[in-house]
Amino acid sequence: MQIKLLFFITLLGLLKYSENARILASVFSPSYSHQIAFRPLWKELAKRGHEITLLTTNPMKDPDLGNIKQIDLSGSYKVMEEQGSSDILTRGRNEGKSFMSMAQLYLDALDRTAEWQLEQHEVKQLIQNNSEHFDLLIVEVMNPIQMAFSERFKVPFIGITPLDAPYRIHDAIGNYMHPIVFPDYFLPFTPPLTFLQRAISVTFNWANWYYQYYVRYPSEDLIVRRHFGEGTRALRDIEKDMSFLFVNVNPIFHSIRPHGLNTVLMGGGTHIGKPKPLPKEINDFVDAAKDGVIYLSLGSNIKSALLTDDLRKAMLSTLKELPYKILWKFEDDGLQNLPKNVKLVKWVPQQDLLAHPNVKLFITQCGLQSMEEAIFNHVPMVGMPFMGDQHSNAIILRSKGLGLTVDRMNLTKTEFKKTVLEVLNNPIYKQNVIEISNSSKDVDMSGLERAVWWTEYCIRSKGAKHLRNPAIDLHWYQFYLLDVIGLLLTGLLVLVTIIVLILKLLKRLVFKNKNNQNSNKKLQ
Ligand SMILES: *[C@@H]1O[C@H](CO)[C@@H](O)[C@H](O)[C@H]1NC(C)=O
Ligand SMILES: *[C@@H]1O[C@H](CO)[C@@H](O)[C@H](O)[C@H]1NC(C)=O
Ligand SMILES: *[C@@H]1O[C@H](CO)[C@@H](O)[C@H](O)[C@H]1NC(C)=O
């Protein structure tokens, strides 16, 4: 009996063991919001017995991370700063830099950072360790370089994006792209587009496609081959083997687009937990503000301390006149003549602050995670977008009536004050926020449950090749039907030519007859 029991327990142990996978996870972006978007996924997978090696720029500080082993890449922030990234993003447009030159500087900084990460001792050891093995790679694909880990370990991989996926990634997994119905999130357009917007969207997509695949990917391939070996396949081919794409969007908030079964929407507040007590300094300030607090933060990539003087002056003179207290996330102490009602703090536990009932308004750069936290906590917003998807998020913010937006390129005190007071005093904005928050929670499964289920499905099915979209293996001219349209047009052309020739022939015959008759008449 005891032996039987022992056998049974051993068998159970083996079964459990075989289900536990070794997962390599890499979230490349030196950006706090990109990192926190996926923390609940790592924790949940670890809780379910999987062993996770996580490459992250913001290691979690929890004491009991169990099966999660973190590789600290926080030095990435310094590398980005050495390339001047905050400066480009915060002041670039106000200082008249062109979109293209800014994009290039920023993308170069990302590539440099990705390469720096591969040069780190622990990462090198991981790549070179021949007895290391994994069952799955989960990798952030905003920058493509880290996808090469799937080649190194010969494992299936799941691509993850903390915002909507860029066009090239939707394209890589075979999601149907249409620049007019689903404009790229870099463009400040939401459907329906005007004719001019349609023309811009199509041109942007073609130009971007060319730039990504013929300029950026080849140089990124060079980085990959330096660190993963000369024989590594091109990133363009690797990305087509992506088993799943987890996109951190909420379909209630974003526009609806068609996608394959292997694209999983996991957004809608996945990263939001129960509110924790605020640090004393912040709590005292917010508790004491009986008339309410406005919270102002431009996120972690845009630095309030780097704003141009004009913009900062316009903001400060507005804040001074508002009958509210203002908590501003500001990265240094060097601000002169700070109004009495404004408090600067270097870091804010944002979710917990937004959950405080005294917070009446959030002035935000329109980062997706920030907006989700505000919606979740029923706080209306004033948006001041800077970069990336923030402009299109700002349009969604306005069109869904969750608040209003201002343009930082020509912000005046009058305009800013009017906008802020309108959102604070008109209850419609808060009502809309509550409504969208309610419908975001009305789902079959939470984003986290969905992500966990499909991750384990991917492990069980060894990459779920049966869900691969057949569109991926078509040439672009086949996908856009150009060969078929070409054939049909050629057929039509041949048909028309034949008909024209026959008509000409008939005409000649008829005229010949007439001419003959005429000449016969003359002869008679
Ligand atoms: C190589 O990987 C194995 C298996 O995970 C591990 O036990 C070992 O410590 C690693 N070696 C180094 C030098 O990291
Ligand atoms: C600011 O500029 C934008 C275009 O960039 C324009 O649509 C808007 O009306 C301007 N606002 C003010 C207050 O001038
Ligand atoms: C939101 O949901 C709660 C609970 O389900 C309900 O009481 C409330 O009326 C809803 N509010 C709106 C604006 O839909």
Task: Give a description of the structure.
It is a single chain. The chain has helices at 2-19, 32-36, 39-47, 76-82, 85-91, 99-119, 121-128, 149-153, 167-172, 195-228, 235-238, 280-288, 309-321, 350-354, 368-376, 390-399, 413-425, 428-441, 447-460, 476-479, 482-523; strands at 22-27, 51-56, 68-72, 136-140, 157-161, 244-247, 263-265, 293-297, 325-329, 342-345, 359-364, 381-383, 403-405. It has 524 residues and is α/β, with parallel strands linked by helices. It folds into three domains: 21-176 and 234-270 and 446-473, Rossmann fold; 280-441, Rossmann fold (3-Layer(aba) Sandwich), CATH 3.40.50.2000; 480-505. Strands 3-2-1-4-5-6-7 form a seven-stranded parallel beta sheet. A six-stranded parallel beta sheet has the order 10-9-8-11-12-13, with helices on both faces. Helix 13 (309-321) links the parallel strand 8 and strand 9. Helix 4 (76-82) runs antiparallel to helix 6 (99-119), helix 6 (99-119) packs parallel to helix 10 (195-228) and helix 13 (309-321) packs across helix 17. Mean pLDDT is 91; it is low at 10-18. It binds 2-acetamido-2-deoxy-beta-D-glucopyranose (NAG) (3 copies). The site of one 2-acetamido-2-deoxy-beta-D-glucopyranose (NAG) has 4 residues, from loops.
